[in-house]
Each structure stands twice: as structure tokens, then as C-alpha cells.
Write the C-alpha cells for this entry.
Amino acid sequence: MTHLDAKALSLLPADMAAACERFPSALSACANLDALNRLKGTYTGRDGSFAAQLMESLKVAPKAKKRDLGAVINGLKKNWEEALKTRQTELETEKKQLDSTKNAWDATLPPPMPPAGALHPLNRLMDRLVDVFRPLGYHVEEGPEVETEEHNFDGLNIPEDHPARGTADTFYLAQHSELLLRTHTSPVQVRVLKRLAPELEARGGIRFLAPGRVYRKDEIDPTHSPMFHQVEGMLVGKGIGMHHLKGTLAYAMKALFGQNADVRFRPSYFPFVEPGCEMDVHCPLCGGSGCRVCKGSGWVEILGAGLIHPNVLRIAGIDPEIWSGFAFGMGVERTAMMVSQTPDLRLFFENDQRFLKAMGGLD
Ligand code: DAH
């Protein structure tokens, strides 16, 4: 009750009566807690407020009036305080609601971003290798993962009775026994040589890199998987010798592992090269003193290579009297394990996000 009856009003000084009349509209005009606090100060504050002035006027009121006036003032004060309290509760509730909706949707905050994907570490390594060879004039070639015996074996001078052709090592397709999952990226050599043979003279040679998946009947263990990756490389030109092969690979390994990278070549045998060799990298993990990755030898084999066998060129329709070249096939997982100090190859295929993140694969 904030309105006073006429009798009560007549007991108050004129300016106080007017203030009483104004209170209800002043109260409902308070749109927030700050405004309400100001009104509170004006009406019920300790010093100088209307309530304080009324108490002062009571002191000097004629004795006969005092009782009635006292009752009016007390009632008035109580009504103001109660009305102010009610309005305060209302405004506080409103503010809470406003704050909670503000927190729920703040247009100024950056939106939550879904985790971004990234290239797999093995793909990144293959891309890096391509980047190293591209400035040397190498382009990228691809071949199918389901291959013919002709490309996977025959065209590579691999004899009919070679053990790699057996079903113990190679996945043949059940319905098409002449089809198989390629056991290396070398069949891409056969395809590219055949395709580019007619334009060899015009091109002045061939240089390409062929990264991709290969398959072998290997049991899964820390260093074997029935599916893995290779990067094939090939150069065809005139007067190409082992020095070109060694110089190219030594340069590439420095670009990949750093200027201190050391390589060594050991003689080896592959039917599609003559002479053939394997290349080892000085173990970057232990610096050559011997560790688990290099099996104590200080060196890790990462690729097979050699000068292209004349039969491979001949089968593709290229005259080995005029043309020569080198080829190499690099194991990607083995190299990645070494670069990243990963002791178990299976980690590359499990796609555990913690591993990929640690490899810088997810940002
Ligand atoms: N294809 C061979 C393998 O998978 C690796 C290889 C060796 C590739 C010698 C070549 C090469 O191009 O010249 O073991």
C-alpha cells in the first residue's frame, strides 16, 4: 500500500504528500537495479531521504498530531520498503535470465571448431620425397594396385620359377589367377616405359617417381605388414651409370634427412637391374653407435636399386644399346619409422589420434 487516504495525506507537509503520490509510478519506471537503488536512496535512505525528512518533521510536530502522524509515517516507510524489495526481486530475476541467455549464445565468441583433419604421416613423407625429386625433373606416375603377372613379374625380367611368384608370397585374385595385388611399385616402370617408348627420343629421356601401396603375404609384426608403401624412382637417358644413381640418391637423402646424412651402397641382386645394390642410411636414431632400429649395425637399409637390366628396356620396346638408366624402390614405412623414431610399424595403420597428433598429423 503506497497510496494514502486523504486524511493521512493531509497530515503530511505538502512536498512529502506529492512525493508519496509519485512513488508508485517512479517505482514501476525503474527498469534496472541501478535505477531502483537510486530510488531507494531517495525514499528510504538513511540521510536526506523522504523517510528521513518525515522522521525529522515528526520531531517538531505539535503534540496532538504526533501519534497519528507517527503511525502514518511508519506505515508509509514500511510500504515503501516492501514495495522496493518486491521490485528488487523482480529485477534480479530478470537480470539472471538475461545473463543466462547471454552465456548460452555470445555472438562475439569464436565458434567451436571441429578438429581439422590432416595428411597421414606416410603420405606426408611420400609428398616430401616427391618435393625433393621434382626440381630434378621427375614427375609423378601411378599404377593400379591390382596388377597383371605381365607387369608385376614378366616385364621386370623375373623368371617363371622365381619364388616371389609363388602363392606363399603373392596375393592372387581367386577368380582371375592372372591378376594379383602388386608386390612392389616396380610394375609402374613397365607401364611407363611401354607408354613413353615411342616418344623417348623426343623427350630426351624419362624421369619419374611412383609412390603407392603394395601387398605381400607377410604376418603382421612390429616390422611387417601385408600392406605397405613404396616409392619407385626411375631415370632413363644416355650413358647413365652407377655414379648417376649414387649421386642422385645421396643428394636426395641429404635433402630428406639433413646435410649430415650418410649413405652406403652394398651389392645386391634384383632380376630387373644389373648391377643391383641396396642402400643403407647411417642410423639417424643412434648416430651409428648401434640401437634397436638398426639392430646394432649403425646402418638401416631403406631401398633397393641398380642400373636397369637391358631385358627390361627391350621388353618395353627400348633399345638398350642406345638407352640406359637407373631405378630404385624405397620402403616408406621403414623410412618413416626411422625419421620419427617409431619402433612399431603397426602404429601407422591403427589411426590412433594420439599417435597421429604426436606425429603432427592433426592440428
Ligand atoms: N622392387 C624391389 C622390392 O620390392 C625394390 C627395388 C629394387 C626396386 C631394385 C627397384 C630396383 O626399382 O631397381 O624389393
Residues 184, 186, 232, 270, 273, 276, 304-306, 327-329 surround 3,4-dihydroxyphenylalanine (CB under 6 Å). The chain has 14 helices and nine strands.
